[in-house]
Amino acid sequence: MDHQRANTDWFMNSKCGVFTHYLTGSDTSVKDWNESVNKFDVDTLADQLSYIGTAYYFITIGQNSGYYCSPNSIYDEFVGIMPSKCSERDLIKDIYEALSPKGIKLMVYLPSGAPAGDITAIEKLGWKWGYDGNWPAWGTERTGERLAEFQEKWQAIISEWSIRWGNNVVGWWIDGCYFSDEMYKHPEPPNFQSFSSALKAGNPDSIIAFNPGVLVPVISLTEYEDYTAGEISDSFPVCPGRRVNGAQYHILSYLGNWWGGGEPRFPDEFVIGYTKHVNSKGGVVTWDVPISDGKIPETFLAQLKILGNAINLIPF
Predict the structure, then answer these.
(1) Which of 132, 186, 248, 285 has CB 3.0 to 4.6 Å from 16, enough for a Cys bridge?
(2) 20 contact partners, CB below 8 Å, separation of at least 6
């Protein structure tokens, strides 16, 4: 019997949403990170997202620096870095508390591996990059390692976050699933099924995507994902329909010159037209924009407002 995917009707009906990379460098101090997280203005962000009419919003929990915008005791126990590089403030909690009264759903981003810029975390968690050579060593020989011990630790870390946030987080976008054959496609755990269970530990109805990288056409890696990660950069594919191998069709790209930065690179007409095209086939589009202290820059806010009006996200 095939695995039953989560219901993505609400996601399809949302049409499009907003993604932000809220990150810092590996050379940041714990003090500076906590000060930065404490300055994040969740109320202004909620007002901006309501203004443009978006139904959902993604934010990064963390990425390669080893700094995360939410505390996690299991991560701290495994990694042993003190003071913790997980923030004292649970920014995810504060964001969903600001978004919820406005009817905006919260989704989160996390890599599938340990933070690549944190040597201590890599060693303590037992993580290895899936190619020989230094990260990111594209095109070199694959090591073919399963990394079961790492996966079990990472799933435990994820479960703590998922259980704490519960139904307040409705989706996950998991980056860096480049080695799925070696790591996840096994009949016994750890595998895609156990990874999915960890992500859904606090909310069984949350929706999940596992990112295989920038691939055109967009693919679905496993029956245990509910929607496609759909990362694209410069090639914008034709949407084939609502589903790809059973997963909700979804595209993620950036409005700026690069992920989380630059100035708007497209005319409004292109952003509107491509979003309408994907929506017309039953797909969803998420647009990444910069963010600073909880504020989206005015140039991007203006484009998102125009998009919201054009696809009838804004009822006035």
Answers:
(1) 285
(2) 57, 58, 59, 60, 260, 288, 289, 290, 291, 296
- Average pLDDT value over all residues in the chain: 95
Q: Classify 56 as helix, strand or coil.
A: strand
Round to whole Å and give the CA distance between 126 and 114. 8
Q: Which pLDDT score, from 0 to 100, does residue 316 have?
A: 39
Whole-angstrom distance, CA of residue 118 vs CA of residue 128: 12
What tens digit of pLDDT does each residue of 268-307 get? 999 999 999 999 999 999 999 999 999 999 999 999 999 9
| Cα-based torsion angle of the residue sequence 47, 51, 56, 61 in order, rounded to the nearest 10 degrees | -40
3-state secondary structure of 33: helix
Nearest of 105, 85, 142 to residue 16 by alpha carbon: 105
What's residue 1's pLDDT?
47
Domains and CATH numbers, the chain: 9-310 (3.20.20.80)
> Which residues make beta-bridge pairs with 227?
248
Are the C-beta atoms of 226 and 248 separated by less than 8 Å? yes
Burial environment of residue 159 by CB neighbours within 10 A (0 to 12, 13 to 18, 19 or more): middle
Rounded Cα–Cα distance for residues 130 and 145 (Å): 7
The alpha-helical segments, DSSP class H, found in the chain are 9-14, 30-39, 42-52, 73-79, 91-99, 119-125, 148-165, 180-183, 192-199, 268-280, 298-310
Which residue's entry shows tokens 């596992």?
Answer: 210
Torsion sign across C-alpha atoms 120, 123, 126, 130: positive
Pairing relationship of beta strands 16-20 and 284-289 according to DSSP bridges: parallel
